[in-house]
Amino acid sequence: MSKTNKILCIGDIILDTYCKGVIERISPEAPIPVLKVLEDDINILGGSGNVARNIVAAGDKCHLISIIGNDNNGKAIKSLCKKFKNLTFDLIIDKNRCTTKKNRFVSGNQQILRVDSEKSDYISKDLTKKILSIVYKKLNQIKIIIISDYNKGLLTKELLEKIIQVSKVKNKIVIVDPKNRDLSIYKNADIITPNLKELFEATESNLIPNQKTIEKLSRKIIKDFGFQHVITTKSSDGISLVSKKLQTLHLPSKAKEVFDVSGAGDTVVSYIASGILRNYSLEESVKLANEAAGIAVSKFGTATVSRNEVNQKLKKRFKICSLNNLIQELKKKKIKEIGFTNGCFDLLHTGHIDYLQKSRNKCDFLILGLNSDASTKKLKGKSRPILSEEDRSEILAQFDFIDRIVIFSDLTPLKLINKIKPNYIFKGDDYKLNEVVGAREIRKWGGKVVLIKCKKDKSTSKIIERIKNGT
Fold first, then answer.
1. Is 266 one of the catalytic residues?
2. Closest alpha carbon to 289 in 278, 273, 313
3. pLDDT by residue (tens digit) across 5-55?
4. Is 110 helix (H, G, I), strand (E, B) or coil?
5. What is the pLDDT of residues 310-353, one digit of tens each?
6. Between 101 and which of 117, 313, 320, 418 could a Cys-Cys bridge form, CB atoms 3.0 to 4.6 Å apart?
7. CA triplet 439, 441, 446: central angle to 5 degrees?
8. How far is CA 265 from the centre of its chain?
9. 60, 266, 373, 403: which one is catalytic?
10. CB 417 within 8 Å of CB 393
11. E strand residue ranges, 318-468
């Protein structure tokens, strides 16, 4: 990385506090639940602090600028900031306000009450000047400025205007995570990341939220306020990228289970900035952020997502590839023994797993040709597949004994076999050698068919029959 290897994050910092317990009865004094406390005073950096800790969790350096009150909550925030290796900070004390705190009371994994302590008046002109002087000093060390606006009074119109203005002069990228409905205060920022509700409120739109209306409203605010890119986060529905020049991108959520969406927007803006810092394209950065958000919403509370977590997820997702990409990869790699097998793998069971493990044990690199939904339907009937090709490939990608997955739409995998030219074709021992597709072709390049001993009485059809019969 260059000398400008830091991300500057400026915005409202919040002390997120959790009180965890169990509810076993209703109060005799009033019709309210009684929380029996098990764990109290769990303190986490929230607001711009959560953005900062996600940046360092992504493996990058961050400088955080914010304000706190002259109180114990402010001291707690300082203490938390000191725990992060790659985080430096300027936390300026405003004697006229308390430190913003959100205190959540939780039973099991369910929030039952949130109590906020805050003062959201705008900061004084003297504090504005002080913050600007710090920003000016840090400009030579940074490439990206994140403005994390939680509408708690730090980000005045004057402060925003001057930060964006100097960033343009110094060629710094400004990313805004907005809370103010008046988007004009962020005018000329490079990237703005509203959530779906914020986008529709800011444009006072009564349209039905969908890809078409998101694109329409995004183009409106690009035109009105001079933004280059609008990245709309849609909670459990993914992310949309609309740009002045780039092609529109609508990404579905990568979350398999949505547990808690609080702080997911912080994760998105952090990973977009991290991607840009590492010279990824904006499209690649948004895809990276979408992966990170999918992990964030599966966690409880204000959570961070580490670079390792994202890499592990991407590694598994990378297994699912096109035939052309696979061929290019095989040309670059020197793999001694390539194995190939194929099938629908609908409703994965122990027979499938045993078969695939045995196949992988007989080669160095196992490629699985997965029948698409269309070809599965032709082979198995109109009621199949039970699981979509996306679900089937995602499940199979979790197993270490499968190296690559290629989805194909032909009735047979012969095209794949001729292109890949594996050393082995694996098939179950319920087949005869001359019945295996590709058996004749593989002999041409010195490969062979290997029949794998299968577990008896294990089949998807039998499982489906049992479900139908209720047995």
1. yes
2. 273
3. 899 999 999 999 999 999 999 999 999 999 999 998 899 999 999 999 999
4. strand
5. 888 777 777 899 999 899 999 888 899 999 999 999 888 999 99
6. 117
7. 90
8. 10
9. 266
10. no
11. 338-343, 365-371, 404-408, 424-428, 448-452
